[in-house]
Amino acid sequence: MVFEPIGYIRSPYTDKFGIPRQPGLVKAAEARLELRPEFAREEAFKALDGFSHVWILFIFHQDCPEAGWNPTVRPPRLGGRESVGVFASRAPYRPNPIGLSAVEHLGLVRDARGLALRLRGVDMLDGTPVLDIKPYVPYADAIPEARGGFAVAPPSDPREVRFSPMADSDLERLDPDGTRALRTLITQVLEQDPRPGYMDRYPKRREFGLRLMEFDIRWCLEAGHIEVTRIYPAP
């Protein structure tokens, strides 16, 4: 049995580090699902505009387990200290590297790049192959009485994010009129504290870097808050 992608995600996440660990956490993260020509038929999306959210079935294309897979993983939610079964996690390293995310959809658009579905709140790497789209049906998909295992409550409170004077200057130069909402995107991504879970055991100041769109973001944990130190155009 062979599956072909129906299209590919174009998102601000051009590197795996920094991608939120669940969909919907970074509302400022908008993306496009660009359909391959053979699937770029508007009639295939008839009545989808009546649904606010969709399920996206995709492939973790940079995490294919070429050397096999492990039956246990260490989820970031448990600080990277405890292991659980891979089927009790949403880790990308799976026997079949398939992901499933519920995201907001903002409608179809047709432009020079073809037909695309606009999405918000994505947690997918730029270039991610998509296998299918299904509508999110609240009465069937929402299960209020469900148990959440080791992830009962939402993640801890978001980190406060501050921008250094140099980072503020970089923003004024790189996004002068704010049309790209770069500050908001950076803030919402870093509020999730993308550091590996085990880093909480090492409080020493250390600079990190992540890439969003075509920008390199430099930041560090400083006295309990995250400080953006510099923003550079990516090489």
Automatic annotation (TrEMBL):
Keyword check for S-adenosyl-L-methionine: yes
Signal peptide as annotated in the record: none
Pfam families: TrmO_C, TrmO_N
One BP term from GO: methylation
Claim: S-adenosyl-L-methionine is one of the keywords in the record: yes
A GO term for molecular function: methyltransferase activity
Family listed: Belongs to the tRNA methyltransferase O family.
Name used for this protein in its record: tRNA (N6-threonylcarbamoyladenosine(37)-N6)-methyltransferase TrmO
Lineage, highest ranks first: Bacteria, Pseudomonadati, Pseudomonadota, Gammaproteobacteria, Chromatiales
Gene: tsaA
